[in-house]
Amino acid sequence: MSKAASGPQRTIIFYSRITIWLALLFIAGGMAVQSLQVNLFTQSDVDRAFANAMAEQMSHALSIRLQDTRRLQQAASNHPQTLQALREDNPAWRATLRQFLAGASQLRLIRRDDAMGLHTTLGYAVQDLVSRTLNGADMRLEAVQRNGDLHFYWASPVRDEQQRIAGVLLAEYGPAWLSQFQSGASQTLGQVVVTQYVDNDRSRGLEIFRTGKDAPRTGTLVTLPINDFWYLTYIPAEERPQLSLMPMVTPWVVVLLATLVGLFILVGLQKREILRNQLQLLTYVRGLSRRGVDEQPTFTLRLFHELAGSMQHLIHTLRPSVSTSVTSSRDNSRNKPDIVFEPVRKTPVSARLAATDKGLPELMVEEMEHEEPASVSQSIFRAYDIRGIVGQDLTPEITYWIGRALGAEVRERGFSKLALAWDGRLSSPSLSSELQRGVLEAGCHVISLGAQPTGLLYFATHELDTPCGAMITGSHNPAEFNGIKIVIDRHTLAQEELMGLYHRIKRGDLPRGEGQLEQRDLSPAYLQRIDDDIQLARPLNIVVDAGNGIAGPLAEQLLQRLGVNATCLFCDVDGSFPNHHPDPGVPHNLQSLQQTVLANKADLGLAFDGDGDRVALVDNHGKIIWPDRLLMLLVEDILPRHPGRDVIYDIKSSRHLATLISRHGGRPAMWKTGHSLMKRKMQETQAVVGGEFSGHLYIQDRWYGFDDGLYAAARLLEILSQRSQSCAEVFAALPEDVSTPEITINTDDVRKFSILKTLSEDAQLTDGARVFTMDGLRIEFPDGWGLVRPSNTTPKLTLRFAGNNEAAVARLQQRMKEALQRHAPELQIPF
């Protein structure tokens, strides 16, 4: 017999055997992997527990060392002879205290009246530390980087007999103190990094020291506080306690091998039983069919017993003679009736469908009402907000559809609420009502904050349970304008994002819903937040001009809280702006402020724009201090606590900013003008402070990083209060060019871009200049610079010039004027 005819070679247990083997293999393998996971998780728990224990031990040790230094200095400042030395300026007692305070490299006893002017030698951070201590703030240690070196200062109050703070004991601790402090951190089994953070930003800080072995592993690093500002980060090394993996894996391997051996034995026994029963079955069937022997053997497997019974029945059935069977079958076939096959008639599909339709119920379709959005002009969607003429480009109906689109966009991005505020313009209440209606009908909830400055609206997106907001405001534009500033997920919408709302309206992507309205007054919390942050070192006498904008009432309340003696001009809200336009970037609008400062002999004057997100300053001589120089003052105060951080300034700002920022340890970055664009860049680079020439100031130190005229003004007052010099003297020490204010030339929204393109290609204009084209055209020469750019909010070109002297500025202006006359002779050039 050939191999092909011998039949299948696989037995009945072939597939069962394979299945069982694979199942056991998978189970055992899975258990082994699970044991590995358990082992790794256990190792991770051990790592974490070890890292936590080491970090807690070291942070506690370092904290004890700080507390020891604190107690010693407190005892020194409370000693009666310290008060006497403060009053009499006794250097002998200071020498005694230096021996008493281990690690102190320098001691100063500073009377309250002598506390101003420390910034000139010690920097603004130390000035701020002393001023806060004099105002009753808790004693604290602060590290300051100056000229590339770390200095450690601790200021403790010296109290008189009536327990009033008469002065400050300022101790500077040197390398010896740092070495003794650092000894509390273990230099084995990992790396220890101590960092100072003076605000809520944990992405960057000032590194105090780093010790121990480099640790490549970062999965189990632990960060714990040492005090309010210093944090210890521990990174374990590879020498940490290790678990052995083999003892946990080996039992599963042994079980797997034992299971496989047992399986082979059982399968072998099963195979032998099957073969024996198979032989018995064949012998029984052969005897039954040939000899008629009907004695069934004893089987050990039920399957073969049942097969034997079936074979017995089959053979007994087949015993009658074949002839009889054939005859019977023939007779039966004659008696059967003939079967006639008829063709099947197919029913057409159409007929079957018609028949089926008779039994279907009628389908009712509800007609949906089609909504036709109002015709919305694309031109109102500007570079960083929505803005247009009320009743022409921006009507209540158009504002409603913008609200529908905005509500849909907020919900699509995963949020459910929107904070809403508006300025004091006459058209703002009606526009805000329609925007609110649109947002609610989009299914988005609204928290109505009322008539408030833009800074408070931004504050709401950080402090309320929604990061989204909208502000109805025309900012500094004329009274007939109004607009909308929009924040989603704490990002102010700009450019393509604003155009996305326009396209959503055009394509009708405006789902309906039912939102809920909530009224909130956030002004007490907002004022309290600023009041808690600002500490003035001395009383100030100032003048405030709010230009009848929305910031006036809150500015009055804030200055009263801070203890400032303020004379308020036009702080009542009047949307018709009867006194002057609320744009502090135009010198004409600051004339009343300048005159009142001189008449009152005030320390300085402050001016806000229409929605309160910009600030301008006039010194005690009535001179306008342009905002790029206000940024310089903030840089000097903030950067020593944040070395290496970015500072952002717009293309209209002073050329001296880059040098000043670098000198104070920061990284200068010029960027495009516009509050949305600047804030986006601030977040992208994690910049600590930034500013625009228009008066938008962005402070990330102790604040949220958005532009808020009221908070920026409060920070400037805090810095100036810490100086013994007058406001004019403070700013005289900062670099300054001879410069022009911002100059505007009327054109139209299309022509302004084509003019700029032509000017950029004018080789005669740019010859010999360093050219910047990120936002308009800025040309820089060794003795000055000039800028022309299209306004993003109005149909104008804006220009500015600055240089070493009047002659340099005049030369730059003439060069730009000639280029404008060549390419746009229709323009009325005001210089």
UniProtKB/TrEMBL annotation:
E.C. designation(s): 5.4.2.8
Signal peptide: none
Required cofactor(s): Mg(2+)
Pathway: Nucleotide-sugar biosynthesis; GDP-alpha-D-mannose biosynthesis; alpha-D-mannose 1-phosphate from D-fructose 6-phosphate: step 2/2
Reactions this protein catalyses: alpha-D-mannose 1-phosphate = D-mannose 6-phosphate
Residue ranges annotated for the Alpha-D-phosphohexomutase C-terminal domain, each copy included: 771-818
Keyword Magnesium: yes
GO BP term, example: carbohydrate metabolic process
Domain of life, per lineage: Bacteria
TM region positions: 12-33
First-level EC class: isomerase
Gene3D superfamilies linked: Alpha-D-Glucose-1,6-Bisphosphate, subunit A, domain 3 (3.40.120.10), Alpha-D-phosphohexomutase, C-terminal domain (3.30.310.50)
UniProt name for this protein: phosphomannomutase
